Amino acid sequence: MQEDRTVDLPLSGLFANLRQEATLLIKREVELARVEASQKVGQITRGAVALAIGGAVLFAGILFLMLSGTYGLSKVVQPWFAALIVGCVVLLIWVIMLLKGASNMKNLNLKPERTLETLKDDARLVRSRTP
Question: pLDDT at position 4, please?
Answer without folding.
Answer: 52
